[in-house]
Amino acid sequence: MSLSQKSHQPESNGNPVQQLFHSTYALTNKCVQCGYCLPVCPTYDSMGKESASPRGRINLVRLASEGKIDIQENLKNPIDLCLGCRACEVACPVNVPYGHILEFAKQAIEESQKEKERAVFGERMKRLSLMKLFPYPERLRAIGNLVWLYQKSGVAKFVRKTKVIHRISEPFANLENVLPSLESPGKRYKWGTVISAKGQKKSRVAFFAGCVMDALMYRTNRLTIELLTSVGCEVVMPQNQTCCGALHAHQGLLEQAKALAKANIEAFEKSEADFYVNNAGGCGAILREYDHLLMEDQHWKERAARFVNRSRDISEILMQYGPLSYRKERRGVLIYQDSCHLRYVQGVYDEPRHLLRSIPGADVVEWEDSGSCCGSGGIYNMLNYEESIKILDKKMEKVKAMGATTIVTANPGCLLQMRLGAERLGLSNHMQAVHIVDVLAEACGFE
């Protein structure tokens, strides 16, 4: 640490301000405030104020780390309103690691809030979900089973007709309304299972099932495995895998995120797989940053680096071991909506587009807004509903103008958000929002 940095350092020891200073001061000073990040920031575009921009937030983090502004009163709201899409990192000419600054800021906010009364219902529910639900796969599976029963029994139709959920929570009601129809829980692959490759075995891969994907979109997970085996991959379902920790890291619960990372590293190491494959852009992003998450842990950092080197998105594996054997044509105009974390954190851009264009009859149209955030941002759309809707509606107007019949994405949050967008525009009867795995599987004849 330089003398100039020491001169700004708060004297208090072990408090959130001190922690923020140690973790972010050098990083925030890399920002030259040039403004290249402004045009790509969805919240700056929608709010039009400096505190809603990456450089504005970086400046606020710096001021908070110096003890010049209050973490709760001045930093929390601007940071909470950030989607964390990380498009700014790609635009930045000096490579400021904005995503890491954001995580450390979230951690400081969380730490500073621990001793205060958590009276807000949303905060209580958020913390309860992150601590008591997402780290426990069997609990999430139980919820998924209940949702399937809820849909199958016809109760869902009654609830939607009465709009009872809207009276409790508008964001939750919208989420319930755009959930896909779940198939029987009996079709889920059991963890610990090994699924043989079809034809010649080319590789052994371990599949990361995820939380939301495993609980509510397990049909897409099943089809992911079908696609992998079809290109010659033997698929292992690691027995003790758990939540990736992305939501925890994004909400400042870094210690919990680290614990989940260690559990996953250990589980996947036992698989003896060549690659660790996922189908959710947000999950994949943090899986590829486990080395950063555990960089200060001497016992785990090398194991984390090996885990990162083996982590792949499903599109990368299909491109590596394909081509896919298609049996059906796809009609209509398809547009691809990038998952921010798949594109900007994992650097996966060409592979999904190439796969979609390889489908017989597919009319895949590239659009200029494909790389801008849809407003989902993990649980951002639940915590900052009105702002997420502003971002979504603006994007969907452009989708409507293109005459698209199918919006393809590669992340569960993005998928639900785009389905909501189509619903809000009254386009859901002739415009689908689907996961790329479902599109590819249908073209291959998998059901």
UniProtKB/TrEMBL annotation:
Cofactor binding mode and count: Binds 2 [4Fe-4S] clusters.
Alphabetized UniProt keyword annotations: 4Fe-4S, Electron transport, Iron, Iron-sulfur, Metal-binding, Repeat, Transport
A Pfam family annotated for this UniProt entry: CCG
InterPro entries tied to this protein: 4Fe4S_Fe-S-bd (IPR017896), 4Fe4S_Fe_S_CS (IPR017900), Cys_rich_dom (IPR004017), Glc_ox_4Fe-4S (IPR012257), Helical_ferredxn (IPR009051)
Domain of life of the native organism: Bacteria
Annotated Gene3D superfamilies: Alpha-helical ferredoxin
Name of the protein: Glycolate oxidase iron-sulfur subunit
